[in-house]
């Protein structure tokens, strides 16, 4: 049943398949309203951006979010090496405990050494992921669309695979459909398309491919009407997931009549 369709990551159950980010919004108020409108349940926050000594609503987005409603996904954005990402992951886990999520060991792992294209570093990601899994983290690694890397990350115990749709913040949509499909087909853990999605139709397309969820930030935060876009993305994700579960028709090379041919001979019957 569709109403029983749940997303499970690291033993934690979610009903929403839209994960939202907290960067690039015009104001904290816009961010909070967009989170509510999106109906997302998991929210990612870049640990490097935070002043962990401050809990003032005027100074820190952490205090602006109701953490009884949202699940924190700390991310290691800004880490250029595996060692930097590991340090940020531990800070993120400490933050989760400070906001009352004692059992939260989630981390979105990003290791990005390329300053121009912001592609994830596969070797650094694998190294950091292996260490963090051993330390009890629920690791959600951000990766390029390499099926073999995805398999290695799964084999060492990562809880999801998060291949990019296209470069971060680019709004180019899904640029490597075939590889993402291969990752989805071969994965026994949830695949979450992360980065580059710019429209609700692209979010729906990712879900139609069989992705378990999508993570969207820039497309919502930078939209002319961010709140309306948050709602649109929510609907796109739901539509794409429902289409995937419904079972889409396979494409045909030639046209297929929508009306049956059988029984149409009466048109040739002569009138008496």
UniProtKB/TrEMBL annotation:
> What CDD domains does this protein map onto?
ThiG
* UniProt catalytic activity: [ThiS sulfur-carrier protein]-C-terminal-Gly-aminoethanethioate + 2-iminoacetate + 1-deoxy-D-xylulose 5-phosphate = [ThiS sulfur-carrier protein]-C-terminal Gly-Gly + 2-[(2R,5Z)-2-carboxy-4-methylthiazol-5(2H)-ylidene]ethyl phosphate + 2 H2O + H(+)
**Gene Ontology biological process terms from the UniProt entry:** thiamine diphosphate biosynthetic process
Give the EC number.
2.8.1.10
Q: Which UniProt keywords apply?
A: Cytoplasm, Plastid, Schiff base, Thiamine biosynthesis, Transferase
Its quaternary organisation is: Homotetramer. Forms heterodimers with either ThiH or ThiS.
State the protein's name.
Answer: Thiazole synthase
The scientific name of the source species is Hapterophycus canaliculatus
- The protein's gene is named thiG
